[in-house]
Amino acid sequence: MDARRSQRLFDPLFTTETMRGIFSDHGRLQAMLDFEAALARAEARAGLVSTASAVAIGTQCRAELFDVDALAAAAAQAGNSAIPLVRQLTLLVAARDAEAARYVHWGATSQDAMDTGLVLQLCSALTAIDADLTRLSSALAALARVHAQTPLAGRTWLQQGPPVTLGLKAAGFLSAIERHRIRLAEVRGRIATLQFGGAVGTLAALGERGMDVAAALAEELQLALPDLPWHAQRDRVAEVATMLGLLVGTLGKLARDVSLLMQTEVAEAFEPSAPGRGGSSTMPHKRNPVGSAIILAAAVRVPPLVATMLAAMVQEHERGLGGWHAEWDTLPEICALAGGALAHAIAVVEGLQADPAQMAVNLDITHGLILAEAVAMALGEKIGKMKAHELVEEASARAVRERRHLRDVLLADSNVVAHLAPADLERLLDPRRYTGQAERLVARALAARKPEGDGSADA
Amino acid sequence: MDARRSQRLFDPLFTTETMRGIFSDHGRLQAMLDFEAALARAEARAGLVSTASAVAIGTQCRAELFDVDALAAAAAQAGNSAIPLVRQLTLLVAARDAEAARYVHWGATSQDAMDTGLVLQLCSALTAIDADLTRLSSALAALARVHAQTPLAGRTWLQQGPPVTLGLKAAGFLSAIERHRIRLAEVRGRIATLQFGGAVGTLAALGERGMDVAAALAEELQLALPDLPWHAQRDRVAEVATMLGLLVGTLGKLARDVSLLMQTEVAEAFEPSAPGRGGSSTMPHKRNPVGSAIILAAAVRVPPLVATMLAAMVQEHERGLGGWHAEWDTLPEICALAGGALAHAIAVVEGLQADPAQMAVNLDITHGLILAEAVAMALGEKIGKMKAHELVEEASARAVRERRHLRDVLLADSNVVAHLAPADLERLLDPRRYTGQAERLVARALAARKPEGDGSADA
Amino acid sequence: MDARRSQRLFDPLFTTETMRGIFSDHGRLQAMLDFEAALARAEARAGLVSTASAVAIGTQCRAELFDVDALAAAAAQAGNSAIPLVRQLTLLVAARDAEAARYVHWGATSQDAMDTGLVLQLCSALTAIDADLTRLSSALAALARVHAQTPLAGRTWLQQGPPVTLGLKAAGFLSAIERHRIRLAEVRGRIATLQFGGAVGTLAALGERGMDVAAALAEELQLALPDLPWHAQRDRVAEVATMLGLLVGTLGKLARDVSLLMQTEVAEAFEPSAPGRGGSSTMPHKRNPVGSAIILAAAVRVPPLVATMLAAMVQEHERGLGGWHAEWDTLPEICALAGGALAHAIAVVEGLQADPAQMAVNLDITHGLILAEAVAMALGEKIGKMKAHELVEEASARAVRERRHLRDVLLADSNVVAHLAPADLERLLDPRRYTGQAERLVARALAARKPEGDGSADA
Amino acid sequence: MDARRSQRLFDPLFTTETMRGIFSDHGRLQAMLDFEAALARAEARAGLVSTASAVAIGTQCRAELFDVDALAAAAAQAGNSAIPLVRQLTLLVAARDAEAARYVHWGATSQDAMDTGLVLQLCSALTAIDADLTRLSSALAALARVHAQTPLAGRTWLQQGPPVTLGLKAAGFLSAIERHRIRLAEVRGRIATLQFGGAVGTLAALGERGMDVAAALAEELQLALPDLPWHAQRDRVAEVATMLGLLVGTLGKLARDVSLLMQTEVAEAFEPSAPGRGGSSTMPHKRNPVGSAIILAAAVRVPPLVATMLAAMVQEHERGLGGWHAEWDTLPEICALAGGALAHAIAVVEGLQADPAQMAVNLDITHGLILAEAVAMALGEKIGKMKAHELVEEASARAVRERRHLRDVLLADSNVVAHLAPADLERLLDPRRYTGQAERLVARALAARKPEGDGSADA
Description:
Four copies of one chain form a homotetramer. The first copy, chain A, has helices at about 10-15, 15-20, 25-45, 50-60, 70-80, 80-95, 100, 110-145, 165-190, 210-220, 235-260, 290-310, 325-350, 355-365, 370-385, 385-400, 405-410, 415, 420-430, 440-445; strands at about 150-155, 160-165, 270, 355.
């Protein structure tokens, strides 16, 4: 029996293959080994280690040479995974080059390998997420463009209000996603940074060559050299979590809106269908919003995980007790869930099946009441806002009570017809003509898009 | 390359083998299959299915017959793991008994299998946790008994105050653990309950036999039959999370206290040492509080996960969108972390190495100041609390300023010696004599322990 | 300008007058003063203080004699509110009885007053919540009874499924509320407990009389005497939070369901209307689900606050640093939000305006598809589940594609009519006849209700 | 009796007067009224309203003219505070100028007033926090400069390791605070943005003039004009929370470190003392870390509140149900706690009383063991790392066992003295000589500071 606790059963549902790869055991080991290999090279460049030793070490820094379960068992004793990894790596190197084995992990501490390894994984994850953000942005832009003038009911408090357009809805998400792209670039600039400080962050074990090794190591790994080691200052790491938390919030709203539009009674837009997707074991006709459900699950799970990362920042002195350990599974989980939610969002938006005809049907459900504002504003210009408001409120109440169309009630009201001609009323009660600045706002959002290829996130 | 995201690398550190087994993919599948097998038997008892069919179905309900990765891939499309499991099970049964295959999952819905499967897993987990609570309670009771009179500095705000005893500290934890045992029994009584309702909770697909099948099914699984299906009412499930959250909070305090006592500068008590345990790759002399760190990590991670379970309770109508999905990995994670923290706590308490001599040394660090209260109270009986308080405050300030022992300062103060003889002062300043009701309180806590074998949790 | 930060502007929206009173500054002060007065009486009973002194102290223990802002300013220096309160109380007593003033707060520490004061507030809050739970339970029971047979669409994933009844929905909530009543009684039994331990929990300052005073004090305050002081073991306090968190989760689901039913496009049930309630400044016709919104806000806010209480349990040694302080505003906030959500839920359920006619209209939206299961099950008994499932799935797809009623498609299918007569089909497709065990399940839930007056919560 | 729930009793402890002012009821009302006044002016500029009307409206937009409790009571019915505010404002204006009263709130919706009002409050809060960050940065820079070479024990896992310097510790915080200053400027650039969209975000009620009014309004309020209204896209608002969450995490670590250094047994640094500060009602000698406790309380409370803001982002369609309401008290709470924690941190750092002599004493507690690494590295260069490690590990174990100084054990070991002369050993075991690159790293952090007056946060 395979008694390893695992999330294999749900992972393909909740996250992407890319994220699973980056944050697999293999991915984690390889990132730490990349640190160890680069360290040896950097120390060779600084003259602390022979080039031959650096090569000998580098040759063994391949995750597939290591036994995950043995490392895990040893980590349970040692308290972290770098200690047994270094021990195992040293043995592997020693088997071929005893001299080189002396210099494995030279001058570094476990946290250097784990933190910098994590940074390398996060850089890969952010690259993947940035690419997906760009793709989602494109899909939203296309949706906004195509449906800039497609009216549907605006809904506040889950009650119909004046109309908006599907394009305007899309543009709102587009604008938010564009902000997330900017945030990602800002955060990337801070997290793509070497952690290397030795036992307590002074680089003391390397004597006078500490800074030279650090600078060369940063270069080897294509990471920035920080002003000083940051092992006990976790804001860089926690910030990745908060940025992704904001992103997942936006995606959660997207999923909520889509799932509400998909309701049997609303039926204005649908997730794309696919064979075997969204079926129910007992209700053969259903078309479940599976993508939205998974995004919403992420929107429930990620905020508390962000809180964990923030709470874990309180780490004692030069290495904390519990706080650091709390990060290990939490940040990968956030990345995985955010990556998965983003992938589902792309699928939902790219394949969204909008039904403008049904939107038009729904716009008439209230028999004109959602256009009451239009009438009230037009009347207000003539008889004052409060009076107009009262008058329309009364007419609306009557329309509801007598199950008549607002138009008919208003046309029967001499106070109204004294100021508004029937044609005016008809025009005011046409939802397509009461979408205000929707088209112009869509254009503004499209114009504000960051060009796809500006690469600022990769600078 | 194994590109499955996984926590294998850290799991042996954070949780127990028992929890890993219960919440493995295998464990999850088997629990659902146990439901399916019992359902077939219950329907046979109700006369809906032939006994032969029930046997044929039961024979295939073994997790090892299923391919986890194939199920996971299908679940990513279907939106849950029960749909492909049932499909696969039906094929397996059909290969041997086409008639029986008709009755696989008869009248049930995916959530019935997943929720009741979860209940079975939770029952196993609670049994394991209850046993460990009993063991921790015993260890704490032993500690409380042995050290009922061993004085050490009481510490408030991380500043030394009047003395307590190590036994009193242990008794405080013992008392909390006893309350957790009671809570566990209460919660178990509510969660050990069948979920079986069909598509929307009406059991409609089973016609008139719905309740009979439900009752037989509950009996088959040794679960309680609820008044009505609870698929959309998640309080039973969330309550397991809150109960474990409370437990982890207590364990977190235990770990914090132990790690503070282990500080190099305090050195009053230590986690047990073990080969390869708590070492550091660069500091060969250190004895790191690995167990405490892991418990503290759990105390950081579990509270937000509990918040997830509570937030996820808001599930729409007869089956929610996102909320239910958010539970799937979260509750097992909480169980795993709680189980791991508890196991580490047992190891820490059972092997705790207390150093009463060092406690005595530390009790003298303030040169008597921590006994100032004793003097103030004794003086207060004679000259009034406020006046005594001021007088002792002044003497304490002078003792600090002049780096003298409080006793010497007090002996030189005529206002004091007018009311307290030197021998009285000596006695008042002896920490062993100012532990108040500690011993009696320990006795009370020991007397209040629930007998180990009363089995109320298993009732 | 009133520069006090405050929540006055929103409090009447989010919570009840009762909760505002209990957790007002006045309420908090009075609870601590009740502790001080009872302490003096208990010490008089134990012979430590004269009866006259106890009376003199008790006379001044009235919150209106204290200046909240002066206390707050002093608390900002002292680090808690009990220190300046005791100082001020001592001055008040001293002004009339210098002898009595010596015995104010005798042998107690700040936390004794603050924790026991909190317990007294919590007991009041739990009494109020228990009464409201009983009231909500009655309202739900009435709703369940009246609408036990009122069919409406069951909805899973926000898609219509087979029908349920409104009574069954109500019974699900009823059952959950009944469990919350039981939980409240269990929790109350643990929290209604004296905290009294002196500086570090040993009662040392009271010499031999510590336990006697504690016992008398518990009696005076009608609280249980615990086995030992629990100042640093916060599970009793945190448990109030978790219990209320579970309750708010249930209420959040109730509000979500109601607000979904109130949607313009669904319109099956409504919050009661009231003058000025749920209006919109621009949309005069709307009837906003204000009560549901506030409950849902609580369901968003409370889970993280529960996490705060759990995280705060990690308090160092005999009095923590930060953890305790984090509780002070958090638990009252949870009580206030839970109390407010409960009050809104009562208003929503007691005044719920259900529209069975509209429910019937909506049941026909899918042209029979939601009854597909009924047909599939009936057919399955004759031709096997999988075959029946496929056949009905195909018919359903055709019904959608050709916009025909499922009945008509099925009647045209020779494979169907070979096994089901037209009258059978008509019956199978009648939603009122496919509510399964709904009525019986409602009856079970009603029968399981705890009698209102059994008082177990007050035991 | 004042039965308003309030936090007056604790607010001066947890937050600053500035924050209390900004987020008082008065502050909230005034910010909304500033929006209303600016809206009238903007509409006058756009020719929709006469200048006289705009003046008449502006004259009444003073918070002191409004009755908070009456507004609160009305808000409890209306569901938000803007509806009664606008109603009240209209009455006030009408009393003097009936014509002007028609144009109060013209074309706007409640959320426009509430969101833009919130933005104005947040801008004030961020300005205050930015100023305090600059001040804290200065204090940390001074500390780093003065103590760049002051050695104290590095501590990992709360165990002593090789030495660091107090300046290096300060520089780590300085570097983090500098990153927070940059983050604040980035976030400010996004949140200082007008929200104005009318009922559903289309500005429909203003006809063709919508964008002109919006542009003029943004100018009047000195806010940026967004590409489109963001009422339902909450990332801008939530981001303020995440940024402050990161800041509080850093401050929490600062407080944890200071409180650990203040422990009676460590006594290396202290919060500044002040009359009445940090006293205990029963322990007259204590000097409690009150500032640190309050910061730590914020570090416990803020992360879950950030989670609330992230979870609340899932707001339905054009205005959500519960999510928006959940923000109202939560974001002010975060600002208040962050502002308070920051103020306490300034006080702690500016007044920090370091005791280098005690640091030196503590550096010798382990009898040289914390320098074992230095010896191991030096030996390693000669006999290989692993062999050196083993040899020093053995010597360390013996030093512990025999309670001897590591130096003496090493000097007695022929394997050691063969490679290291006594003078070398003496030098290696001098903590002042094993602080590695500490001084240089401090210089780097100081050099990387953002100039105080560059104003980028205010751009």
